[in-house]
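Quick one: structure for this chain?
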Amino acid sequence: YSFEMASVCTDCAPGKASGTYTNNAASVVCAACPGGKSGNADLQRCDLCPDGKYSNPASASCADCDHTAGYVSLAGTDGATICEFCGAGFRANKDAHQCEECDVDTYSVGGSDSCLICPAGTNGVKGSMSCSPCP
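Got it. Here's what it folds into:
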């Protein structure tokens, strides 16, 4: 950004960007990047957080979602402002950045990137949060 009649531009603080140029004039303010985006100091713009990452408003960078604790995020068109928790019967798929149901004869209590195999003598339906004794 630059102040009127300034001969040089000044970098915005981390997590902020100067926006666009209008009428061949530089922006005179730095605005906070919205959630789901982070400030790109080199280009003075807000960049979308990629899949698997999120940010709060005015963040200088995007943070990773902890898939090992069952969290995922999809950037979508506006970026992610939170990580989604994969609850019981689901696991966090790091590569697809989404919650996936546990397969038949596996289960999850939630908060994990894997489903556990049902113990011998038990079984479970797709998306189980526990295993039941076999009849």
